[in-house]
Design a protein that fits this description.
Oligomer: single chain
Helix content: under 10%
Largest sheet: 11 strands, mixed
Shape: flat
Number of helices: 1
Number of strands: 59
Structural class: mainly beta
Strand content: over 45%
Length: 875
Amino acid sequence: MKRLIPLIILCIFVTEPVSATHNRAGEITLSQLDDYTYEILITTFTYTLSQADRSSLEVQWGDNTVSSAPRTSITRLPNFYQKNTYIAQHTFPGPGTYKIVVQDPNRNLGVKNIPNSVNVVFSITTTISINPAIGKNSTPVLLNPPIDRAALDQMFVHNPAAYDPDGDSISYKLTVCTEEDGRPIENYVLPTASDTLFIDAVTGDLYWIRPTEIGIYNIAIDIEEWRDGVKIGNIVRDMQIEVYETDNNTPEITRMPDLCVEAGEYVAFRVIANDVNDDSLMLSSSGGPFVVDGEQAVFEVDAENSYAGHSEGVFTWQTDCSHVRQQNYTAVFKAEDNNPETQLVDIKNVNIRVIGSPPDTPQLIAASNSVTVTWKPDPCPYVTGYRVYRREGPSGFTPDSCVTGVPAYTGYETIAILDDPNDTIYFDDNNGSGLNQGAEYCYMIVSIYPDGALSIPSGEACTPLIAGVPAMLQVSVTNDSPSGDIELKWAQPLDLDTIPANGPYEYIITRNSGLFGQDQELVFSKQTADISDTIFTDTDANTELFPYSYRIILYNNEEGNRFMISDPDIQERASSFYPDLTGGDNQISIRMVKNVPWINYDYTIYRHNETTGVFDSIGYTTDPVYVDRGLKNNEEYCYRVKSTGWRSIEGRLYENVNYSHVNCTQPVDTMPPCTPILSGQSFCDAFYNLLTWRLPADSCMEDIVGYKLYYSPTEAGTPLLIEDYESEPTDTSYIDLKTEETLTGCYYISAVDSFANESALSARLCLDECSNYVLPNVFSPNNDRTNDLFVPLRTAYVEKVDFQVFNRWGLLIFQTDDPDLNWDGKIMGTDKVVSPGVYYYICEVFEPRLGGIESYTLTGFIYVFSGNENDVFIE
């Protein structure tokens, strides 16, 4: 018997290559159709002399589903190559990272660096991350085929010509070719070289310096896709290279420089190749510029300047602003000779960066402590917004031909990012702190493109602030009531020319509701012979509503000589300020909200005392946010704030004190409790998982009233709530009894407090410990009610089996897919019990695992007894 089973297996393998020795190379690419639906394109290159030919391929989608992709095209190529394309669509269940596997038995015969390649399953993989937060994500496309030829002891160069339609960056590295289920091939080695074999991580150029042995070789190129420094997918391309011994020499393309062009420029250059053997040459091209949306590049061979051993071609591309992106476009040029013995190739790349044109130089409207910056909308329809840069004093910066954005070394800093291409007005008051008098402020504008690419910066525009106008110093709420008081103070113009404006004067005070004066306006008048009379009290303000914004306009009010001294269009505003309150768990967060041209350097916080009826000082801060802690939830607390600040006007320092409006709110527990730390183990014999957890600190136990437990049977599955129960915070264990289903799975837990706030889910805990489907090696089917059936020692957690029993001649005598087996010793299809002896079994076991249903194979011998002590066994 021991000699028969290997014979059966040998027969299987001897016949297999006849129909399954054809796969040479391939890759998988994906295009996103909507949020979770993708179209897959599988490209394979096969050996045409093999009888094996697949009209469809099975796709493992990485979400525990499998479907078939039909073949959509066949292209026959020289040297017994056939290109096959397969297309299918699939909707993934939701966000996640999915490893897609396509496999097909087997690889072609004689691959030097893959042991026994003809019996190795061919597989290719691609991984894609689906995440609405990162936006659309299609894989790169590979524009050069994964098959090539090399010459013994000569340098070999290849480039996959990867192009990412989303503008993501691409990197390259060598990896291991894969076999069944996308596993790395055991004992795989890279081809040998007299010097080295490597791939340039940035350009994708594969260099083999130099092959030392003729034959067929396969290599795998891992093409990784990155966005904002985060890896979001990869393609593992399986490539085949045939090495020939030849007297032919590789042609050579003259190296060309990389280019940086402004969108709208016309790009044109010549490509020149030479061959020392004077073979005729065929020039071709591929790469991103030839497949972009909009105007595409063109490459034409110059027949008049091409002859034996020499060829030229012309590359042209009319760029436009749709081509602007962060990453370069790579044009790949290939020269292939027509040598009668062996055709060889050379490859050269040209990287082309297309950058956005500069916006128009901005226009500036200066006030006493602010600047309004305006500019024309960028005419490119693909612009998504703008960056606004500012510095004190001119920089003299003029960008060179390939600088985008405004470099930090210029002294400029980003003060605003606007996400609307039609938003071309920016009011700069230094985020409410006001700009400093006496300084000259300069601005530059940069356009933003969909992938975050920045344009060439605009021209530099500069302006001083406007002096000689009233400058606001104080807006203080002195009486809080429906008819309350707000006191205003301002600084008189210090450099006013009193010859034309010798008084008397009128100050016009305008009041608007709203922080920036955007709502209804009221007008007050203050007439005075003394321009230094700069105090006004608004006695008709409902200070229970807030805030209010004020503006001071100065007139010369002489009879017959009345005119406006300060322009209201550039006159600054100053608002009353108020505490913006946010209730939390036993606390209230107080944020100081204002729009003022001075700098506040500290705040005193007052809270209303219900017993005394006055506001008590409870705290002091230099930050614009203060948190009042130790409060009772659902009780109302009222606050007012005193600010202390300063302002410099034309070299003079002014200090001020302002009181806020009164505001009230209640603390409400909206803070989620601490996230528990989950652990656990499986008790396979008892059919349960024991889960335990702890809180990261003792203080976390406060207010916890229960826990929620979530479960998914697989790693990729969506966790579902399986238990929601109230308990003491110290009750931190749970038994998940599973007598009818697998113990394999992943758990999460969260904590819940008395206000129904739920913590974040814990880190995932996956258990996959119970896998011991064990078969005995003896039974006695003699109806003595003892050991009459051949059954496994454990059947729990097994989905199904493929159990086969063979006699010593290799004949199948019993088969079942029932995990309980229950073989009564009878030959399949009869009532005859087998003779005592030794039988061979093969059992493929299918179990639920973390990745879905997985299988493994058990083999062994069964000793069948009749119960007669004279049984004789023949092996």
